[in-house]
Amino acid sequence: MKAIHQASLLKNKALAPHLYEMELLAPTLAAEGKPGQFVMVRINENRDPLLRRPFGLAGLDPESGRIRLIYQVVGRGTQQMSQWRTGRTVDILGPLGKGFTWTGESDRVILAGGGLGIAPLLPLAQSLRDAGKDVIVFLGSRSEALLFGIDAFHEMGCQVQLATEDGSCGFKGFLTTPLEHFLCAQALDSVFLKAKAASESGQGHTHSHTHVNLREGLAQTGYHQLYACGPAPFLKAVSAVAQRYALPSQLSFEERMACGIGACMGCAIQIKNEDGTIKTCRVCSDGPVFTGEEVQWNG
Amino acid sequence: MADLNVNLAGLQMANPVLAASGCFGFGREFNDFFPIRQVGGIMVKGLTLAPCAGNPTPRIAETPAGMLNSIGLQNPGVDAFLSTELPWLVQQEASVVANINGHSLEDFEEIARRLQGAPGLKAIEVNISCPNVSHGGMFFGTDPAMAAEVTRRVRKHTTLPLIIKLSPNVTDITEIARAVVSEGADILSLINTLLGMVIDIKTRKPLLARKVGGLSGPAVKPVALRMVWQVAQAVDVPIIGMGGITNAQDAIEFFMAGASAVAVGCSSFVEPMSIPQIIHELSAWLDQEGYASVRDIVGLALE
Ligand SMILES: Cc1cc2nc3c(=O)[nH]c(=O)nc-3n(C[C@H](O)[C@H](O)[C@H](O)COP(=O)(O)OP(=O)(O)OC[C@H]3O[C@@H](n4cnc5c(N)ncnc54)[C@H](O)[C@@H]3O)c2cc1C
Ligand SMILES: Cc1cc2nc3c(=O)[nH]c(=O)nc-3n(C[C@H](O)[C@H](O)[C@H](O)COP(=O)(O)O)c2cc1C
Ligand code: FES
Q: How far is A40 from chain B (nearest CA, A)?
């Protein structure tokens, strides 16, 4: 149940210039929060800055009652947060929104995080690993200093691939390139193996490597779901790649929010109904996770 | 315990703290935090005749001690309100005020007609002051003749207490106040948001997709208070004061300026429990100061 929590600040440490990790003691939140959900943090008592700030849950540990947030200092609110000392009480509203979903199957999944969008993938990867899934994570950012969580993903037993725009780490360029390479290689491989098996059993006819085959090919590799979080242009690009391989995606969106609970209609997003008509949904309470198939991209 | 009951021209409420339109949805989200029947009156999200999808995003921009919004009246339309939202609200024993919006005079009339006789509806608030729509909206509230005409038309179709919500985006708000009262407004509510803007220096463009939006929050309180104080002296109908109220002290200032009730807007976004907290603090303050009723402090700051 969403509620206001008075959490005790246990840790507020710089990971890199302007990038901070915060740990809070909030047992109910830690127990009830799910990967993909977020919280709204109150900056101060005196209503200036007025609004709470939204942050994705970047860590959930029900046993110790701790939650983790990873945030970048970009403006007034996050600037003030970065000054907070441990021991302080932080007023947080949450857990908010609907998180990511997954099946009980022990199949293979792909995670893609852009910039601060890496944060909510951390608890997601943990839950997916706990569910017995094979997880490969693609992480992208402007430069190496802004990448985080790599060790944590490795420790969970995930494969990790990196991309930075300046080439300081991993592939130089956008994350969608290694992602597409990976999907293509997987799909080709499975199409190839199938063709080989068919020809060996004597009933072979040559496969032409059309796109349709690649789409079928990927499904046969056991990759059934992609999860992504990051800025809207990133999500749009990732979802376009996924759709080329008929790979279903769950995307976590950001939008400017006043209430975070579904009351103000500030955080609108256009979503396609099954009949093709468009409805306006709220990122905060109907999302922040939507499927790549249902989102109506503007511009 | 001080008496918090108020009766504004037939709008009877158990306490004088309302939820401002657009800042409380249709109550559902807040019912997760406290029983919404505790609110003196819920002014629901602005209704239009047909469902309305609202404006493109960004719709929200924070400003010093305030915020701009350009929601653009996203709502399910008056018929969905009547079939789903109102019955649910009534079931929660909430005291409901319908906030209505039109693109034309005929729209206002038609919505009022459809609301007439709706079970459980306590009053109609006519929003002639929405700055976030291109057709109608604030246009009706910035011209005294037009404001009077809207009031006259809605008055014909409703027997409920009629609230007219005034725009602060005018030179002389008392002129509009007098005009609508002369056509049968029972109650005035003020203020709606002040037109403003924010520019994002990174993109060199206005931050809001619609470029301009309505300012609310603590930043507007002095303006709102001054306008309530002016209107209270200009007309003889009860006033619902709003604009930047975040605590009981703010609310008390509005009562003293001449408001008979107050509404809490974007404070509920920051603190979902704002309204019950303000009611509680108000009651405590009245007791502490020895007032038997909240009605005893209305207009204390007027001559
Ligand atoms: C669901 C969700 C999850 C998020 N998770 C994270 C996270 O895990 N880590 C992280 O660093 N950031 C995250 N963000 C973005 C974060 O909310 C903003 O960076 C932060 O609000 C900026 O506040 P500020 O006062 O420093 O900036 P300012 O620019 O001074 O803020 C002014 C206003 O704009 C809003 N705003 C500014 N940038 C954004 C943005 N990108 N998205 C939404 N609102 C914004 C602020 O909330 C505030 O209301 C998330 C946003 C959403 C919607
Ligand atoms: C997000 C938002 C949506 C609003 N929607 C409406 C509306 O639909 N109809 C209306 O009459 N006023 C609307 N308002 C104005 C408020 O009811 C109120 O007049 C104004 O916000 C001032 O009060 P505040 O400073 O306490 O928020 C809206 C305000 C906000 C912030
Ligand atoms: S932020 Fe208010 S409805 Fe989503």
A: 9
